[in-house]
Write a structure and sequence with these properties.
The complex is a heterodimer. By secondary structure, chain A is mainly alpha-helical. Chain A is about 60% helix and about 10% strand. In chain A, helix 3 packs across helix 4. Classes of the chains: A mainly alpha, B alpha+beta. Chains A and B meet through helix 1, helix 2, helix 4 and helix 5 of A and helix 1, strand 1, strand 2, helix 2 and helix 3 of B.
């Protein structure tokens, strides 16, 4: 039941499927930038840009470093033989699974509540 | 900045962590907002398990899932678009303690497959889940990593090239 070896198990394509994120990669290809600078450049809120950078970071395409109050983003150096990259993909898989599991659990909880209410009626 | 202060603790709580805990072991942890019996049910009921083990965003098809959840019972998962291109994953449950602990072997790769152990630890209505994959040797775990990397190789070649192109503009 491991399956992380399957090529389609990867969020990198999802990361690249968004025009803003591709733009961010291009931008970082030219120069490192802070989240604030990227948010300004792409006319987005800080929260919105943080989400995009988070997706890119999860996919190993971008790395960030916080110095003082500023988080600087740069292109990630993805190396396939790198254990860190492997762990990161493994992490993505489990993160996606567990987000889906959250939904299943919410459904079960809701169903339990409904059933309990029916019993009382 | 206020939005960030509010959203971060909420996200932190749900964060999935992955750690190589030893030469032979990987551990994944996550907290779920439900009692252990509900989380356990989602891991041991095929129709529920199928809803999350292969999230839609990953674009894979889980064709079937059989689970005989008791010590010595077998499971079998079959993936693939159609009958001609299927991949099966299978093994045996070696520990089954309702609501607290599950363990199974992963036998599809022959010898050297890991044993997966999942613990469900309930506290204040929430469940801390820890999933460990213990390989028979450091070499087996390294090989699993390398195998994963190789399987990804073709897919990622283009991506690597894109990054090289993007990076080239800077140097």
């Amino acid at each position: 039941m491991v399956q992380y070896a399957h090529p389609r198990f990867d969020a990198s394509f999802a990361a690249l499927s968004d025009a803003t994120r591709r733009g961010v990669l291009e931008q970082l290809g030219r120069a490192d930038a802070s989240i604030t600078e990227l948010a300004d450049k792409f006319h987005m809120t800080l929260t919105g840009m943080k989400k995009h950078v988070g997706v890119l970071e999860q996919a190993g395409l971008v790395t960030t470093e916080k110095v003082g109050r500023v988080r600087t983003c740069k292109l990630g150096r993805r190396r396939l033989e790198d254990e860190a990259a492997w762990i990161q993909r493994y992490h993505q898989l489990w993160d996606a699974r567990f987000d889906a599991l959250d939904k299943v659990i919410e459904d079960l909880k809701r169903k339990e509540k409904t059933d309990a209410r029916k019993k009382r009626e | 900045m206020h939005a960030r202060n509010e959203s971060e603790p909420a996200r932190m709580k749900k964060r999935t962590t992955v750690e190589r805990t030893s030469d032979r072991e990987l551990a994944v942890t996550r907290t779920f907002d439900a009692p252990a019996r509900i989380v356990f049910e989602a891991w041991t009921t095929p129709e529920l398990f199928m809803q999350w083990w292969v999230p839609k965003s990953l674009g894979m098809v889980l064709r079937s899932c059989e689970m005989d959840v008791r010590v010595g019972g077998k499971y079998r998962l079959v993936f693939g678009e159609d009958a001609s291109s299927t991949d099966a994953f299978f093994g045996t449950y070696v520990e089954v303690k309702p609501y607290s602990r599950l363990a199974w072997t992963n036998d599809e790769g022959g010898e050297g497959g890991p044993v997966t152990t999942v613990t469900f630890d309930e506290k204040d209505g929430k469940t801390l889940l820890v999933m460990r994959e213990l390989y028979p040797s450091k070499e087996a775990l390294d090989a699993a990593g390398t195998g994963a990397a190789e399987a990804m190789g073709e897919t990622f070649e283009q991506l690597d090239q894109l990054l090289v192109t993007l990076g080239a503009g800077r140097s």
